[in-house]
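User: quick one, fold this
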Amino acid sequence: MKEQQKETEQNIEEINDETVTEQIEADVDTLEKEAEVDPQQVEIEQLQSDVKELEDKLLRAQAEIQNIQQRHARELQTVRKYDGQKLAGAVLPAVDNLERALQVESEDAVTQQIKTGVEMTLGTLVQALRDNGISATGEVGETFDPTKHQAIQSVASDDVASDQIATVLQKGYMIQDRVLRPAMVAVAK
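Assistant:
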C-alpha cells in the first residue's frame, strides 16, 4: 500500500511536472510569437516618426522665414522713415546761417535784393526739409522738454510761465519722431 501510495504520488508529480512544462512551453510560444515583429511594420513606424520630425522642422523653418521677413520689413520701414537724417544734419548749419543773415538790418537797395535772394533760398531749404519729414522744434512759450530741448540757461521772464521756453538760441530739428538736433533754449524760472 505504501508502495502504491508512493507510486501514485510519483504519478501525480509527473503529471504536475508535465502540465507545468506544457504551460511553460505554451507561454514561451506565445512570447515568441509576440516577440516576432514584422520588419515592415518596424520600418513603417520608423518612417512615420521621421515624417513627423520633418514636418516639425518644416513648420519651424517656415515660422523662422516669416519672422525674418517681418524683421526685414520693419528695418526697411525704419530706414525709409529716417532716410534723410544724415543729409538734413549737414544742411542744418546752412539753414542757421541763412536765418542769421536775414536778421541783419539793411536799408540799401542792393542789400535788400541780396536779402530777398537769401529769403528765397531759405524758403526752398525749409520746404525741402518739411517735405522730407523734418520739422523745427523749440518755440518761445513751448513747454520745456528735455528730450527735444537743451537748456543753456534759466532766466526770469514775465512773458512766459515757469518751465516754458523764454528764448530760443538755436532751433532744434526732428525727423519724424527722432531728434536730429536739440533746440538750445533759455528756460523761464
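User: anything notable?
Assistant: The chain has a mean pLDDT of 84.
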